[in-house]
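Example for tutorial group B:
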């Protein structure tokens, strides 16, 4: 209902009194007064509208239920408007649009607005109310009066502010204004100077683009780059702009979004000639002609460096020249409605008869969705239907005509959030579709088409015809049928048509990518209801690209079984620093992280002096911040400096001043050399007491005419690495120096085994409060014998984070960001209080929360679609306990990391009673007792390694499990989805099936044959993963996760891997992101897309399978399962089915030229016979109740596949029968060729058998 309100206003409070409902219910609506507003039960979508009688600055609202009743509103939306007809929903800074209301009819619930709004009309829209009764409201609005100077631009005019002098030169500018626009294009501000300076502020595609140049480029040159801020600014609502410039530094603020940048150009001042133009760029000498599209809308409070431009124009001051600009803001009636649901929203309008026959429809729409039904209607003659829909971001018109379909399309990327105009006309023997200003598309017809029934905008009613296309989600306005405008108010009042799930008088579109909540450079994509992040190429994964795909150190790579090689490490995890490429040298004693620089060869120096020294700058493979993080997190770092000299001194012999020195990473000059502490100008020979001349502290200072050496190692971490070296004494006759700077080398990861032991429930470690507003991740290891306990907790006023062991086998992650407590739990099938280390990782972002425990499946929880985003914490972080000193944790915690920052538990534990540094036990050190993801198990008198989660075996999980085997079927004991690792708590049905899937695949192989099928993983829902070698030996990975589509094919490496060498393949998939590493090469990332590779036929996989695999295969691991090792070590297990011989060896340690084992066989013709076919088949049961009968069915399916492929091979063999005699005449040559190609021994070939792997 509509409520007319009289107000009394002061600077603090707007009191609403003497209210009168239009449906004649007298009431008093002041808080604590009698009565209140309560609509009739029969009212559809009720709301309460308040008229403040003038523009006001509103800062807060308060609500109360109806007095002496049980009617109240528990949640509501707040809309505002200048005109009372075009409305916009108010949203808090964190994006939340729903306000918390009442839980009874008596209490007053205030809501302070995070940013004030300037408006005349307010609308309270109830969302939830008392479920046992009805809704009712009493309201108060707080704020103050608001005055402004307004100018209205008609799209053909501008204001010119002319300077008193020829030009205006400034080093500091402040420009402020507010505007509301009816179009997505238009210039708001422009000025330029003769030397090339210019300043331009314009609307472009609904965003604000700012150009500023200080004397370098010509006007609007191709080199000019705009700074873009804001989005959807053509919504007919006010937006504020602030431009602040000092020299080259600029802040551009639109509403609450600020972007800082440094302008281009050589100067610091902005020089503008003659005038500034507002509303357009007039062409000199041609009045009324403009270079760019003019602004169409209103501006208010326009200030240029303190000068009120609109006030000058209103007073007709001589320096202001204006076109047809008026000083009141006109209010166009561009009323829109919002289609809220993709399944149930629709608007039906009756068919109006046309004078000329046929019909025409015009309307405007805007949306983010790439698909949706816009319009549909039944046609006459019968059995014909016309549909206008958005398909793959294009506009598609389809005529369904007696089982046939005729189509016409228009536009591209119509889901860009902008308004688009559509015209549809059938008033001739053709159907004409026009989009915006593009050329029309037509469908020819033989007879006149007439609409019958109704026009359906959006979806269809439940009783209407059904279409597989989703309903339109977006905004529609300016509907006209047969040139007659449709009054949306009549629809809302029930006087015209019918509707469902519509919101009138507002276009409730949001740009969910502003600000971009994808981290680390992830690209944001959005639909009407949500957004997603494209993390490809960023090095990060997850819903918001928060989680790094790389390990944090070389030490961490060694713990998962990696060998020496180049790796990308992310030293701060999910922090702001990106990954850095390093070389990890895995030795028996230590793991070295090696960072190289650009100067690797020895450098000879001659002719340098203190006046003209030789200076060499070192550029490392990591940034300065990455270097500092790596060095700080390492136990020890060092850098070797090889320095050879002849008649070239390091220090002056008279006063001791350095003649050569080096500069540390912080820019400080250092004059000590290898082997000595800072501040001591000596060399290593002095420490070792073996200098050439004992009167000097360096060999070079002896100044002899023969080569001397002052090589040493710099090892003071705070000064490493060396950034410059300066040589200043090689300008004398016969004087020269040769130096070589080694790479930075560090060992030890201090964070991995940084631990604390908790002995008292009341004890905890305290750390400063954390910033985790939009995203955070917490990870740590724990071991305990207690049944429960809180690992960590941090509180805010209402928000909190808590991770705890809630029972011996359950870890719980709970938090609250203002939407109510959210809880995630992971239950282990084995107790977690077994004195062994267990891994926990909890993450929360604006999209979802997740919890991981060990290698158990992740649990997910979706964030509310329109809930609060910002987590506001103010208290300290409690580790091992709570603020109440209850339910504290008893046990050990190590490697506690928050957003990539590791907490020093050991140091903090020294100051807290009941807590000690470190953790007792054999498995509490960084000695890497168990390798390749093996788990260290504490024993009463030692330790043992549990290799069940590793693809390796042996006492320390370092031995390769097998090299050749036969057919094997592995059945998972737990019924969980391998391809879709989903949580029951992830309730959103609209999420894509692969969005949270995770696979980790690793194996090692040797072969000299291609094509070959290395590995397949199949599910009973016809999904599969296949890893193959193509004809040229390159690696391909086939993913078929959506059965209605062709497989996605990825080629991580184009060179041949069929080279007889050992290759290690690691594949990790998380959602839509795929990461592949071949041997020790770089990790390559891919993303699911539909490209040429996705359209290849399956014959490539079948051909590779028909060729089989000849070579060695070992260390196969899929997620946390090592199926081949399970077959070797658990031959009696019901989970493993083996056919044929299965042997164990270490092919990776043997010479492939002499002892390579053979899997499969090759016929002289290069094909396969029935007894020589090989196929690698790993079948995985992925549903409950997997039994021996199912396994039998799986084996039967495999046999059927074998029969089909055998039949094909038989036909191929028959086709070649004409050539068989010639081939039999020369069997020796073919055999020799195959033997040479595959490097196989005769003795091995003679004993080849048929194998299934």
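The residue assignment follows.
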């Amino acid at each position: 209902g509509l409520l007319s309100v009289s107000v009394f206003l002061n600077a603090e409070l707007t009191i609403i009194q003497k209210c009168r409902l239009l449906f004649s219910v007298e009431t008093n609506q002041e808080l604590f007064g009698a009565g209140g507003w309560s609509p009739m039960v029969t009212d559809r979508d009720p709301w309460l509208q308040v008229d403040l009688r003038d523009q006001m600055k509103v800062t807060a609202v308060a609500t109360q239920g109806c007095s002496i009743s049980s009617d109240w509103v528990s949640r509501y939306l707040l809309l505002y408007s200048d005109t009372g007809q075009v409305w916009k929903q108010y949203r808090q800074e964190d994006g939340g649009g729903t306000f918390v209301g009442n839980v009874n009819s008596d209490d007053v619930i205030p809501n302070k607005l995070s940013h004030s709004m300037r408006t005349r009309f307010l609308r309270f829209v109830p969302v939830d109310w008392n479920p046992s009764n009805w809704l009712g409201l009493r309201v108060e609005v707080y704020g103050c009066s608001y005055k402004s100077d307004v100018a209205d631009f008609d799209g053909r005019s501008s204001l010119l502010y002319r300077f008193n002098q020829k030009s205006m030169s400034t080093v500091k500018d402040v420009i402020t204004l507010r505007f509301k626009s009816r179009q997505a294009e238009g210039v708001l501000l422009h000025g330029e100077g003769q030397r090339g300076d210019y300043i331009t502020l314009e609307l472009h595609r609904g965003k604000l683009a700012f150009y500023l140049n200080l004397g370098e480029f010509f006007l609007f040159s191709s080199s000019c780059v705009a700074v873009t801020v804001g989005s959807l600014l053509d919504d007919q609502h006010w937006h504020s702009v602030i431009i602040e410039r000092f020299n080259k530094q600029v802040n551009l603020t639109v509403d609450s979004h600020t972007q800082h940048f440094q302008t281009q150009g050589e100067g610091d001042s902005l020089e503008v000639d003659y005038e500034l133009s507002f509303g357009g760029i007039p062409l000199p000498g041609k009045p009324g002609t403009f270079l760019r599209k003019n602004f169409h809308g209103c501006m208010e409070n326009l200030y240029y460096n303190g000068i009120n431009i609109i006030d000058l124009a209103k007073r007709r001051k001589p320096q202001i020249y204006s076109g047809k600009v008026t000083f009141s803001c006109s209010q166009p009636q561009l009323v829109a409605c919002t289609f809220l649901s993709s399944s149930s929203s629709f608007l039906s309008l009756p068919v109006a008869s046309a004078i000329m026959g046929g019909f025409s429809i015009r309307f405007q729409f805007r949306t983010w969705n790439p698909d949706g039904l816009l319009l549909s209607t039944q046609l006459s003659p019968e059995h014909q239907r016309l549909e206008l829909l958005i398909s793959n971001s294009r506009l598609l018109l389809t005529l369904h005509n007696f089982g046939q379909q005729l189509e016409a399309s228009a536009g591209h990327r119509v889901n860009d959030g902008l308004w688009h105009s559509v015209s549809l006309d059938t008033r001739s023997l053709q159907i004409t579709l026009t989009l915006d200003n593009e050329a029309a598309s037509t469908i020819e017809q033989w007879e006149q088409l007439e609409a019958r029934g109704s026009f359906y905008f959006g979806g269809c009613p439940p009783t209407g015809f059904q279409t597989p296309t989703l309903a339109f989600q977006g905004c529609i306005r300016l509907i006209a049928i047969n040139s007659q405008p449709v009054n949306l108010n009549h629809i809302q009042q029930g006087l015209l048509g019918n509707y469902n799930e519509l919101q009138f008088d507002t276009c409730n579109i949001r740009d969910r990518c502003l600000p971009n909540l994808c981290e680390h450079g992830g690209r944001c994509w959005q639909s009407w209801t949500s957004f997603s992040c494209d993390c490809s190429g960023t090095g990060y994964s997850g819903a918001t690209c928060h989680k790094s795909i790389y390990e944090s150190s070389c030490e961490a790579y060694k713990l998962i079984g990696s060998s020496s090689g180049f790796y990308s490490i992310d030293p701060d995890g999910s922090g702001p620093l990106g990954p850095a490429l390093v070389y990890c040298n895995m030795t028996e004693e230590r793991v070295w992280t090696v960072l190289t620089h650009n100067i690797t060869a020895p450098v000879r120096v001659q002719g340098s002096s203190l006046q003209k020294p030789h200076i060499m700058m070192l550029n490392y493979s990591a940034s300065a911040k990455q270097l500092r993080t790596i060095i700080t997190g390492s136990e020890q770092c060092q850098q070797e400096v090889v320095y050879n000299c002849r008649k070239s001194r390091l220090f002056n012999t008279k006063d001791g001043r350095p003649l050569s020195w080096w500069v540390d990473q912080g820019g400080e000059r250092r004059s000590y050399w290898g082997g000595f502490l800072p501040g001591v100008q000596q060399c290593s020979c002095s420490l070792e007491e073996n200098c050439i001349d004992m009167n000097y502290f360096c060999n070079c200072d002896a100044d002899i005419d023969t080569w001397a050496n002052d090589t040493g190692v710099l090892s003071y971490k705070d000064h490493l690495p060396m950034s410059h070296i300066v040589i200043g004494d090689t300008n004398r006759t016969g004087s020269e120096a040769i130096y070589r700077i080694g790479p930075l080398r560090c060992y030890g990861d201090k964070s991995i085994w940084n631990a604390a032991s908790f002995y008292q429930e009341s004890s905890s470690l305290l750390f400063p409060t954390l910033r985790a507003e939009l995203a955070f991740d917490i990870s740590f290891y724990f071991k305990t014998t207690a049944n429960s306990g809180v690992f960590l907790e941090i509180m805010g006023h209402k928000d909190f984070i808590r991770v705890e062991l809630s029972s011996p086998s359950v870890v719980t992650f709970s938090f609250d960001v203002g939407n109510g407590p959210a809880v995630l739990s992971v239950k282990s099938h084995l107790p977690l209080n077994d004195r062994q280390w267990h891994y926990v990782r909890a993450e929360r972002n604006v999209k979802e929360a997740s919890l991981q425990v060990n290698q158990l499946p992740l649990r997910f929880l979706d964030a509310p679609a329109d809930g609060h985003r910002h987590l506001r914490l103010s208290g300290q972080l409690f580790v091992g306990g709570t603020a109440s000193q209850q339910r504290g944790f008893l046990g050990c915690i190590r490697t506690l990391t928050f957003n990539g920052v590791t907490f020093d538990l050991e140091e903090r534990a020294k100051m807290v009673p009941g807590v000690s540094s470190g953790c007792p036990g054999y498995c509490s050190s960084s000695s890497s007792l168990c390798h390749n993801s093996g788990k260290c198990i504490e024993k009463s008198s030692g330790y043992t390694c549990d290799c069940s989660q590793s693809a390796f075996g042996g006492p320390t999980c370092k031995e390769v499990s097998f090299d050749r085997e036969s057919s094997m079927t592995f059945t998972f004991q737990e019924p969980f989805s391998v391809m879709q690792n989903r949580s029951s708590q992830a309730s959103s049905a609209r999420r894509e099936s692969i969005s949270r899937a995770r696979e980790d695949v690793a194996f090692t192989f040797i072969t000299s044959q291609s094509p070959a099928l290395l590995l397949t993983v199949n599910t009973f829902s016809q999904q599969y993963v296949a890893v193959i070698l193509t004809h040229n030996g390159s690696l391909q990975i086939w993913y078929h996760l959506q059965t209605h589509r062709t497989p996605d094919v990825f080629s991580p490496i184009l060179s041949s891997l069929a080279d007889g060498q050992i290759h290690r393949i690691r594949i990790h998939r998380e959602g839509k992101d795929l990461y592949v590493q071949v041997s020790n090469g770089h990790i390559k990332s891919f993303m699911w897309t539909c490209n040429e590779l996705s359209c290849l036929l399956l014959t490539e996989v079948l051909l590779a399978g028909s060729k089989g695999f000849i070579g060695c295969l070992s260390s196969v691991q899929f997620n946390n399962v090592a199926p081949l090792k399970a077959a070797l070590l658990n031959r009696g297990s019901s989970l493993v089915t083996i056919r044929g011989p299965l042997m164990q060896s270490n092919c990776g340690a043997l010479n492939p030229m002499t002892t390579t084992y053979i899997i499969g066989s090759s016929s002289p013709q290069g094909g396969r016979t029935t007894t020589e076919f090989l196929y690698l088949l790993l079948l995985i049961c992925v549903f409950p109740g997997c039994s021996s009968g199912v396994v039998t069915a799986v084996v039967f399916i495999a046999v059927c596949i074998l029969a089909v492929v055998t039949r094909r091979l038989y036909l191929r063999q028959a086709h070649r029968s004409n050539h068989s005699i010639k081939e039999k005449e020369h069997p020796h040559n073919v055999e020799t060729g195959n033997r040479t190609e595959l490097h196989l021994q005769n003795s091995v070939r003679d004993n080849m058998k048929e194998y299934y792997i």
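The domain at 961-1187+1217-1222 is CATH 2.60.120.200 (Jelly Rolls). Compare this with the pattern of hydrophobic and polar residues in the output above.
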